[in-house]
């Protein structure tokens, strides 16, 4: 502390209206001369606490925020004292970082920094609170609420210490918080019936005054007669003797109405207690306005014992020991505080439960007894006969909180709103259902059998809690979900789940209509397509307020390889017919698969359905409609898998990749389609066409189902490194309307998930590209287009391998080739095929010669007559020729025959 302030402070013991001895370890108010109070506030939950000078709040929480415990730090040589002030609500020190806020003023946010304050008394208008800051500055609370004064002047705001006014307690929450029970603690003493176990507070109002009755947990009901509720009551049995004390203790008894013979006219005043709390230390005073008194050993009930009488629960001494009793004089009041009660525990703790209704007789909901709540649980009339671990609508997420309270929320919701994610993706989110219980206690009915009451009155439900064996790590419970791997490679077929019919599948009949048919061989195979292009296909729901999330995904279903369109339904002659359709108006139909009570059977429901319509199959005529179920139709299907890959999976190895008689290979670094023994091309063996295919990924990732590969002609494999000549797109190609990129084999080094092309440098350093980098032109996929056939797709450009005038290119405006693969042996020398680069292709009224630029070409007919004699000026020349067989002789090459159409 700066010594310039050492003469400014007198002892705290002499200040204001409350002496230091009176304060002791109590909290006090710091009240300004303008009758505002130094108070901790939190105006924004995202920000730290701050202090302001405001009017004193009316409830306990507000008063606690304005209470401070002065903790003596040091006494200075001048006699001045320094204190720290601890807030009752936050248990944090009054402390400032002394920094300017956004408004340019020094704010009063609680933060580490200055936390020791001089309390200066003996000044006009009250006392001053301030702290030394730096060498010559003072920090004090400003009269402008929410700011600090920082300067050389002493503060203008004056404070006085004010003891808090005791408050009356009136509600269950005042004693038990969020629980239903609480405990009294009599500091260092036996509180008898009041402290033996938990108590249940029952608020009552007597003659305009808030009071409580207290039930003892475990002894809530009398054992006599009709077993009515019983409460702590002042006893009519005397403790003491005629020569010592004569006082009443306490017992449990039922309510005796006014005018009854017992208690000389009723016992309301003997079992209703008024509680008040001293906010300085939260101690409790417990009084009544009626008492049992004894005269010569006989009792009498003193009701409202006269003006000024207050009967206090406390101790008197009998036979040398303290006795808990109640009296108005010569009684030692104990230091009573409140303690947390023992909450009723749900045996299974946090988890997913079914809730079975057990309404009492006379309850509105008793009609639905033994049924299971659904949805948000607020409509017992919607309760169902059974709950299932596979049906979220019958499930409730129950969360146990640290304070012993519980929150309950249904896992299923049907109202969906559209949201847009940070990446722009549209998804659906369930409008959260209301909580059935929100941080409230459970009340025990029959804990051994899982029976609990949700409230303390007959308007709340009694429920049987049954914990379900639900895998909480599976966020797709209740709906069939397919990974992208499964979607990319598989298809589904639907087998009717019915005891009334066996081996019935959804099948395609005439006019693309879907009906039932017997036999798996007739099953319609549908490939799943995730509906990313339509809102609400992916819906997030579950008991999200409690940290539980479920995800429902809807899919479009199309016939494998899109032969006849997607699954849809449309009205035909008043019937909602299910069919495959390519109609643009029906392309947005998405379906999700709702689990049934039995595992692996599902209903097929359109994602946008807002009524009870589902896909149904009539067992008598095998017709399929999309409508509300009626008698005689079946609604559950087993979903079987089938193979319908989008992209072909390839094992690493050597393959011949062919289109008809021609096969893909490399010649002088250029991709070629050549034929073994073709009379139009120089002969080569099958071994020369062996290409090495290997995955482009070391870590492909579960969401990547394109199965990207590299195709090599000449490859050296060493651990995770491959050095070789890889099929790539490089350079532009154009011929008439055909456009694309030239297909070549390019020297490259592949290490893990990167590719580096020989000679591709930047500032003298080798460029390296990730698998999905647009500059990686070698990544290809084998896209399946029909059984046994596929297209080679450059996945980073979506261009496909095609041939134009004998030239192999990657193009998106030329019909792609359809390929097949056949495993083969590795060639002896895995290099380019040693064949001529010259290719001759016969066309309609012409012959195209490729790869002969600068060479002389002579074309003659079958009679030996020369029809063309020219030097080729380009790499791809078309020469007019007569229909029929012609002989083409290219300089330096063997003559070949061609058939011109």
* Rg calculated over all Cα atoms: 44 Å
Strand percent estimate: 35-45%
* Helical coverage, percent range: under 10%
Number of strands: 70
Low-confidence stretches: 1-23, 421-426, 678-682, 829-835
Q: Give the structural class.
A: mainly beta
The gross shape turns out to be elongated
Taking the sheet with the most strands, its summary is: 14 strands, antiparallel
**Terminal CA distance:** 108 Å
Mean pLDDT: 83
Discrete helix count: 4
Describe this structure in words.
The protein is mainly β and 901 residues long. Helix content is 2%, strand content 45%. The chain is built from four helices and 70 strands. The strands form 18 sheets. Strands 48, 49, 50, 51, 52, 53, 54, 55, 58, 59, 60, 61, 62 and 63 form a 14-stranded antiparallel beta sheet that branches. The radius of gyration is 44 Å and the shape is elongated.
Tell me briefly what this model is.
With 901 residues, this protein is mainly beta. The chain is built from four helices and 70 strands.
Layout of strands and helices, then pairs:
Blueprint: H1 20-23, E1 28-32, E2 37-41, E3 50-54, H2 60-65, E4 67-75, E5 81-87, E6 117-123, E7 126-133, E8 137-141, E9 148-151, E10 159-162, E11 167-168, H3 172-176, E12 182-186, E13 199-206, E14 209-216, E15 231-240, E16 246-253, E17 274-278, E18 283-288, E19 290-295, E20 298-303, E21 311-318, E22 321-327, E23 336-340, E24 351-357, E25 396-400, E26 406-410, E27 416-420, E28 426-430, E29 437-440, E30 443-446, E31 451-453, E32 462-467, H4 484-489, E33 490-496, E34 504-508, E35 514-518, E36 526-530, E37 538-541, E38 550-553, E39 555-559, E40 566-572, E41 575-581, E42 591-595, E43 601-606, E44 614-618, E45 624-627, E46 633-634, E47 637-643, E48 653-659, E49 662-667, E50 670-675, E51 691-695, E52 709-718, E53 721-735, E54 738-751, E55 754-757, E56 761-762, E57 765-766, E58 769-770, E59 780-786, E60 789-794, E61 799-804, E62 807-811, E63 820-823, E64 839-842, E65 846-850, E66 856-861, E67 866-871, E68 876-880, E69 884-890, E70 896-900
Parallel strand pairs: 28-37
Antiparallel strand pairs: 1-4, 1-10, 2-3, 4-5, 5-6, 6-7, 7-8, 8-9, 11-17, 12-23, 13-14, 15-16, 17-18, 18-21, 19-20, 21-22, 24-25, 24-32, 25-26, 26-29, 27-28, 30-31, 31-32, 33-47, 34-35, 36-39, 37-38, 40-41, 42-43, 43-47, 44-45, 44-46, 48-49, 48-51, 48-63, 49-50, 51-52, 52-53, 53-54, 54-55, ...
């Amino acid at each position: 502390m700066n010594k310039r302030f050492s003469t400014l402070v007198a002892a705290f013991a002499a200040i204001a209206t409350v002496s230091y001895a009176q304060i002791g370890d109590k909290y006090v108010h710091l009240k300004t001369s303008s009758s505002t109070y130094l108070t901790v506030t939190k105006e924004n939950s995202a920000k730290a606490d701050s202090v302001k000078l405001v009017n004193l709040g009316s409830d306990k929480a507000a008063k606690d925020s304005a209470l401070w415990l002065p903790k003596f730090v040091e006494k200075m040589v001048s006699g001045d004292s320094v204190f720290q002030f601890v807030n009752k609500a936050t248990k944090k020190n009054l402390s400032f970082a002394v920094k300017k806020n956004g408004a340019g003023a020094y704010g009063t946010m609680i933060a580490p920094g200055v936390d020791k304050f001089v309390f200066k008394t003996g000044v006009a208008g009250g006392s001053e609170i301030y702290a030394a800051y730096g060498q010559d500055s003072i920090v004090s609370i400003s009269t402008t609420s929410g700011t600090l004064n920082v300067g050389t002047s002493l503060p203008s705001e004056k404070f006085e210490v004010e003891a808090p006014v005791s408050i009356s307690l009136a509600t269950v929450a005042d004693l038990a918080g969020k629980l239903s029970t609480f405990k009294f603690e009599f500091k260092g003493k036996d509180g008898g019936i009041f402290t033996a176990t938990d108590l249940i507070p029952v608020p009552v109002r007597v003659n305009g005054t808030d009071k409580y009755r207290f039930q003892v947990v475990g002894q809530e009901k009398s054992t006599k007669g009709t077993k009515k509720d019983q409460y702590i009551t002042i006893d009519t049995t005397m403790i003491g003797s005629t020569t010592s004390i004569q006082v009443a203790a306490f017992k449990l008894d039922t309510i005796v109405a006014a005018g009854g013979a017992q208690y000389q006219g009723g016992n309301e005043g003997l079992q209703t207690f008024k509680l008040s709390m001293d906010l300085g230390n939260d101690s409790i005073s417990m009084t009544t306005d009626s008492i049992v008194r004894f005269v010569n050993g006989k009792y009498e009930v003193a009701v409202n014992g006269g003006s000024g009488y207050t009967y206090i629960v406390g101790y008197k001494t009998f036979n040398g020991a303290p006795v808990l009793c109640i009296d108005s004089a010569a009684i030692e009041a104990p230091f009573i505080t409140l303690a947390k009660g023992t909450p009723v525990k749900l045996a299974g703790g946090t988890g997913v439960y079914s809730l079975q209704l057990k309404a009492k007789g006379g309850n509105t909901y008793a009609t639905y007894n033994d049924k299971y709540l659904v949805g948000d649980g607020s409509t017992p009339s919607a309760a169902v006969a059974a709950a299932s671990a596979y049906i979220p609508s019958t499930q409730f997420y129950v969360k146990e909180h640290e304070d012993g309270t519980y929150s309950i929320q249904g896992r299923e919701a049907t109202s969906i709103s559209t949201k847009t994610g940070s990446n722009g993706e549209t998804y659906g989110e369930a409008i959260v259902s209301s909580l059935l219980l929100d941080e409230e206690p459970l009340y025990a009915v029959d804990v051994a059998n899982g029976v609990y009451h949700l409230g303390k009155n007959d308007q709340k439900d009694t429920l049987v809690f049954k914990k379900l064996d639900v895998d909480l790590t599976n966020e797709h419970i209740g709906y069939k979900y397919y990974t992208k791997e499964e979607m990319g490679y598989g298809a589904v077929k639907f087998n009717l789940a019915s005891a009334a019919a066996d081996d019935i599948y959804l099948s395609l009949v005439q006019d693309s209509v879907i009906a039932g048919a017997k036999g798996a061989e007739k099953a319609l195979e549908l490939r799943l397509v995730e509906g990313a292009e339509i809102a609400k296909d992916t819906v997030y729901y579950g008991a999200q307020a409690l940290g539980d999330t479920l995800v429902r995904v809807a899919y479009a279903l199309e016939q494998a390889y899109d032969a006849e369109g997607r699954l849809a339904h449309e009205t035909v002659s008043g019937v909602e017919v299910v069919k495959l359709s390519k109609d643009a108006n029906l392309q947005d139909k998405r379906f999700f698969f709702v689990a049934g009570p039995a595992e692996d059977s599902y209903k097929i429901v359109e994602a946008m359905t807002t009524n009870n319509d589902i896909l149904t199959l009539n067992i008598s005529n095998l017709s399929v409609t999309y409508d509300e179920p009626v008698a005689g139709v079946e609604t559950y299907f087993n979903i079987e898998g089938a193979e319908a890959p989008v992209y072909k999976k390839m094992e690493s190895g050597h393959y011949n990749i062919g289109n008809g008689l021609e096969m893909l290979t490399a010649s002088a670094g250029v991709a070629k389609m050549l034929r073994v023994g073709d009379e139009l091309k120089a002969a080569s063996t099958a071994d020369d066409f062996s290409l090495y295919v290997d995955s482009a990924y070391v870590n492909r990732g579960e969401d990547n189902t394109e199965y990207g590969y590299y195709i090599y002609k000449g490859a050296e494999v060493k651990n995770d490194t491959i050095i070789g000549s890889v099929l790539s797109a490089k350079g532009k190609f154009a011929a008439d309307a055909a456009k694309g990129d030239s297909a070549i084999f390019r020297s490259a080094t592949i290490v893990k998930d990167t590719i580096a092309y020989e000679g591709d440098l930047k500032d003298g350093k080798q460029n390296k590209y990730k698998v999905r980098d647009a500059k990686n032109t070698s990544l290809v996929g084998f896209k399946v287009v029909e059984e046994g056939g596929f297209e080679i797709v450059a996945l980073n450009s979506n261009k496909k391998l095609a041939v134009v005038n004998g030239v192999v290119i990657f193009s998106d405006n030329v019909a792609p080739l359809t390929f097949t693969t056949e495993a083969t042996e590795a060639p002896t020398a895995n290099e380019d095929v040693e064949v001529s680069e010259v290719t001759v292709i016969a066309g309609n009224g012409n012959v195209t010669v490729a790869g002969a630029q600068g060479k002389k070409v002579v074309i003659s007919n079958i009679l030996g007559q020369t029809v063309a004699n020219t030097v080729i000026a380009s790499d791809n020349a078309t020469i007019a020729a007569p229909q029929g067989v012609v002989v083409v002789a290219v300089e330096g090459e063997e003559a070949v025959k061609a058939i011109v159409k």
